[in-house]
């Protein structure tokens, strides 16, 4: 019992350290992108906490895999403290309740707190006098989200997971069946609500994560344009625009008014000249920045990192394609949610994780890196694309110039993406996500004696399945939609990769100065 207690204390210490690191990262990340002139304490705290919840939730999958693997020795037998089914059940329940707790927090953030803070900020007046009216209006708009959440919980509570009563049953028996289902499915209601949000997360993964996986490594490889060349080009553009403005103004030197077309062209040229002057100031600031010189010195490292990320992304796509192909060939089809209980085709990522198992803790490090990779490529995709609603761009994500509403949207999208990340990782390495590094002793009968040998292919009746797998496959129809979403993810990634390859180098101040810029001034950027 003492070793178990020591391991428990060590585990909690590591958890506390990881939590502090996550909170520190969230604070730095939000403060980096936050507009300091257009911000509010409540929106900043909400964004930091929501981002921290997203990262903590993404870290739960490696912990889940580690715990089911830690129950067994390398020889396939259960450890002394895990040999009892009751003890194993307690650990499994603890992990499951951890999922439900974090997912409940996500549900609370998505359907109440983030919408409330968003509308609270939108209702903010210039004089900021009537706080009660501001809260009242924000709650009024948030009620719609609460109604949707309540509807999902009710639908999930009454979705039958067991066969309904026969047609000959009385009305009372049918009502009693529904009441019992509701009583037994309080957790199923939460699962249904989270699975519904996961569908939205799947759309965000297809849009932002797929694009981020293609654009992040190629941007590292291609780098940015030369600052000196950009400043020279900007100076030439300024001279050309000033010449065009002087040419238009010369038409009215004799007192004749400009035509409507010329006045419109003059306004456009003056606006363009203002943008070019702002670009010149930004380029000058960047050229004097020490970080720019450090970045130039680290250019070879960025290229190597970009090549590595490209290879990782291609490995993920190949593994995802093989996994989906395996499901298409060997599952029972749509009616079963394309669920399979093993791997029939060689999956490179799954084999790599299994090969790393003998060297502790390389497989857990790799699965953690994969999870972090998904989160950070999603953040890169959102940062490059901005916040869109169909064909309309709502907000931009820019350092020191991002509006509070955009940060709230960013955190909400990341929360939804994290919900779908577990299924994506399961698709990449199905056997490993189901059983971790567990093995079992297989008994084979020969004519003379029983022979025991160690199997590396776990069986569901002799190995503990991760809680994540059970949670993901509670409703078969969601698994079916996730399966087709994986195909869409592959297609969008390939399209994004082609577009990223065709595009040239980015400007060193990409996205910082635009014609439709709604920021009041450049003071934040200068400071």
From TrEMBL:
Name the GO cellular-component terms.
lysosomal membrane
What Pfam families does UniProt report for this protein, alphabetically? LMBR1
Q: Provide the membrane topology annotation.
A: Multi-pass membrane protein
Q: Which InterPro entries match?
A: LMBD1_LysCbl_Transport, LMBR1-like_membr_prot
GO BP terms: namely: protein localization to lysosome
Instruction: Give the stretches traversing the membrane.
Output: 12-30, 42-71, 100-121, 141-161, 187-211, 303-322, 364-385, 406-426, 475-499
Gene Ontology molecular function, alphabetical:
cobalamin binding
Q: Which UniProt keywords apply?
A: Cobalamin, Cobalt, Coiled coil, Lysosome, Membrane, Transmembrane, Transmembrane helix, Transport
Coiled coil stretches, renumbered = 231-279
Q: Where in the cell is it found?
A: Lysosome membrane
Identify its protein family.
Belongs to the LIMR family. LMBRD1 subfamily.
Protein name in the entry: Lysosomal cobalamin transport escort protein LMBD1
Q: Which organism is it from?
A: Denticeps clupeoides (denticle herring)
Q: What's the source species' lineage?
A: Eukaryota, Metazoa, Chordata, Craniata, Vertebrata
Q: Which gene encodes it?
A: LMBRD1
């Amino acid at each position: 019992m003492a070793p178990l207690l020591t391991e428990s204390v060590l585990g909690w210490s590591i958890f506390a350290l990881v939590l502090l690191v996550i909170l520190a990262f969230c604070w730095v990340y939000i403060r980096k992108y936050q507009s300091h002139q257009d911000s509010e304490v409540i929106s900043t705290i909400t964004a930091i906490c929501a981002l921290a919840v997203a990262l903590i939730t993404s870290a739960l999958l490696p912990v889940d895999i580690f715990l089911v693997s830690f129950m067994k020795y390398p020889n396939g037998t259960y450890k002394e403290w895990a040999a009892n089914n009751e003890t194993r059940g307690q650990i499994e329940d603890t992990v499951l309740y951890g999922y439900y707790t974090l997912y409940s927090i996500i549900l609370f953030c998505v359907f109440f707190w983030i919408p409330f803070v968003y509308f609270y900020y939108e209702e903010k007046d210039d004089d900021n006098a009537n706080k009660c009216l501001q809260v009242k209006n924000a709650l009024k708009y948030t009620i719609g989200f609460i109604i949707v959440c309540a509807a999902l919980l009710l639908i999930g509570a009454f979705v039958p997971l067991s066969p309904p009563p026969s047609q000959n049953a009385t009305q009372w028996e049918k009502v009693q069946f529904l009441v019992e289902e509701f009583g037994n499915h309080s957790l199923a209601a939460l699962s249904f609500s989270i699975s519904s949000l996961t569908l939205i997360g799947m759309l965000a993964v297809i849009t932002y994560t797929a694009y981020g996986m293609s654009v992040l490594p190629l941007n590292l490889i291609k780098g940015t344009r030369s600052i000196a060349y950009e400043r020279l080009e900007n100076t030439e553009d300024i001279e050309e625009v000033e010449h065009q403005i002087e040419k238009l103004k010369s038409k009215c030197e004799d007192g004749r008014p400009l035509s409507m077309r010329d006045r419109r062209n003059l306004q456009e040229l003056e606006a363009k000249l203002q943008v070019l002057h702002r670009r010149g100031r930004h380029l000058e600031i960047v050229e004097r920045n020490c970080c720019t010189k450090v970045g130039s010195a680290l250019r070879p490292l960025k290229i190597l990192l970009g090549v590595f990320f490209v290879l990782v992304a291609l490995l993920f796509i190949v593994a995802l394609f093989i996994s989906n192909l395996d499901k298409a060939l060997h599952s029972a089809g749509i009616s079963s949610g394309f669920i399979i209980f093993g791997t029939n085709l060689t999956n490179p990522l799954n084999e790599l994780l299994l090969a790393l198992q003998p060297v502790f803790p390389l497989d857990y490090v790799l699965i953690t890196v994969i999870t972090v990779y998904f989160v950070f490529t999603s953040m890169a995709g959102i940062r490059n694309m901005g916040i869109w609603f169909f064909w309309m761009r709502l907000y931009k994500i820019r350092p020191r110039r991002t509006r509070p509403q955009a940060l709230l949207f960013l955190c909400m999208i990341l929360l939804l993406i994290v919900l779908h990340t577990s299924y994506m990782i399961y698709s990449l390495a199905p056997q490993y996500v189901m059983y971790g590094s567990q093995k079992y002793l297989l008994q084979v009968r020969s004519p003379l004696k029983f022979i025991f040998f160690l199997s590396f292919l776990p069986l569901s009746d002799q190995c503990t399945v991760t809680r994540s797998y059970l949670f993901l496959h509670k409703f078969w129809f969601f698994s079916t939609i996730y399966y087709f979403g994986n195909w869409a993810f592959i297609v969008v990634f390939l399209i994004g990769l082609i577009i990223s390859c065709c595009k040239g180098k980015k400007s060193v101040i990409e996205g910082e100065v635009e014609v439709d810029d709604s920021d009041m001034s450049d003071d934040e950027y200068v400071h």
